Predict the structure.
Amino acid sequence: MTLTVVIPARNEEKTIYKIAKAARQHADEVIVVDDGSVDATAQIAREAGAKIVINGEKRGYIEAIKAGFRQAEGDIIVTIDADGEHNPENIPLVAKPIYDGKADLVLGTRDKAARISESLMNWLTNLKVKISDSCTGFRALSKCLALELNLKGRCTCGIFVLEAYYYGARVIGVPVEIIPTDKPRAIAWRHIGQTFYVLGWLLRKRRGQIG
Ligand SMILES: Nc1nc2c(ncn2[C@@H]2O[C@H](COP(=O)(O)OP(=O)(O)OP(=O)(O)O)[C@@H](O)[C@H]2O)c(=O)[nH]1
Ligand SMILES: [Mg+2]
């Protein structure tokens, strides 16, 4: 089985080289999806050995990872952030349960939600799926599942897990290391709309089958 790492990146020229280069050590393919960067993110990522997907102009995180999923050649896809909070050395750990056929979606979980609104989303998600962190951007999944997902919310909080669950995926979490960054954490206003979107998914009853 082959592995593709998908890295969504907007204005991450300071960190992208290190992340993409380290990811390459653990993957057959690294795809950096950039839209709307006004810095040298794409050029630096290319120098680090990544394939670059330019996904239009400011289409957002969700559309970025979906573009990466469509381009990925690997059987397994890992998504990881470019801002340095995730350690690429944890990629094999997150991908292992998929290699072993034990899960279809693995969340690289943090021990503490970054925001109160994320804790609320986690609480709601846990009404259906026992997972400590439904908002993490560090995850592994089968390509087959990745291509099923619609992901139409304001962000992936709660929804990535719930959608996968309703498609019949086996979802588990593995704790990963989080590297503190000095990036200021803005209030995530999008989580107000996202809460209602998550509630909509929670009201669904029937689970399906992947593929
Ligand atoms: N291509 C693309 N990447 C994006 C976009 N928005 C965010 N990203 C990337 O997605 C990853 C996660 O974005 P962050 O802004 O760090 O989101 P977050 O981790 O939920 O937020 P923080 O807690 O503030 O770090 C980073 O690698 C970003 O560069 C976007 O619109 N397009
Ligand atoms: Mg971040």
